Amino acid sequence: MQSPIIDVTIQNVREVLEQSKNQLVIFQFHSARSEGCQQLTPVLTAIVQKYPQQLLLARVDCDQQQDLAMQFGVQSLPTVMLIKDGRPVDGFAGVETEQAIMARLQPYLPKPEDELIARAQQFLAEQNPAEAYPLFKQAVDIAPERADLKVWLADTAISLGQLPQAQALLAEVKLADQDSVYKAVLAKLELALEAADTPEIRALEQQLAASPDDNNLKEQLAVQYQAAQRSEEALALLLGILRQDLNYGDSKKLFLDILAALPKGDAVASQYRRKLYSLLY
């Protein structure tokens, strides 16, 4: 693995600047005669070693590379410049704390949710939305302000038939964030909702409306709901039956089968699992 620290000379400076297209380059102008430089060096070294893929520490010895320091307009030591895409984006003169430096670097460092997103997208590429769902869910919990994460989670929920969750997530996306990806997922949701409203379901709903206490109809409708991936509605019907009779027909088995089919971390599964436990215990 390439070292995240490089000594810069007039001969390799163009190559280092070119590297700033791939990662943030921290130019550190230093001198062995400067106490401030001696204080700053271990701090910068520790930071880049934590993020070797995102950061490169480019150290310029101003005692040896005076012409280079002049080209960069360095007037005092220590001086630090942050270079991205060949241009300075930030910097400071003097000694700063690690906390202050990290605040400057934050826009260029991976966010806590980024690893979760990468893993989730890999599962989606493998046609495995059930494994992607809990990872996107964790990412949304970490960064609830990110509309793009809610759209990805909604899209995954649709693939798993979790249509109410998808509706709720998309409803939280503000107008300014409703981009082409959002519109595509919304269209996918609308198609899924239409497909989930089958003639069999409509017929059973009408029968149940006429006989609201008929547990046999409720159980049949729950089976149809689950077949159309309307899990939450199926669970609600079955829970109503179980509250009256824990041993009615196949209701408990159907209920547990639906819970088992829901993805890990699903909020509906957690909610109805707690409700069942309260009945059992």
Automatic annotation (TrEMBL):
Signal peptide: none annotated. CDD domains: ybbN. It comes from the Bacteria. Residues 1-110 form the Thioredoxin domain. InterPro entries: Thioredoxin_domain. This is Tetratricopeptide repeat protein. The lineage of its organism: Bacteria, Pseudomonadati, Pseudomonadota, Gammaproteobacteria, Chromatiales.
